[in-house]
Amino acid sequence: MLIIDLTAGAIEIGAIISVFLYGITTVQAYIYFRSSAEDSTKFKLLVLAVWLLESFLTILTCIYLYTITISSYGDAVALNAMSWSMNLIFFVGGLVSAIIQAFFSWRIYVISGHYPVSIISWAGSTFRVAITLTVCILGFKAKTISNYEARWGWTIILSFSVSMAVDLLNASALCYFLWRRPKISPGTHHLIDKVMTWAIDGSRYQV
Question: What mean pLDDT is reported for the chain?
Answer without folding.
Answer: 83
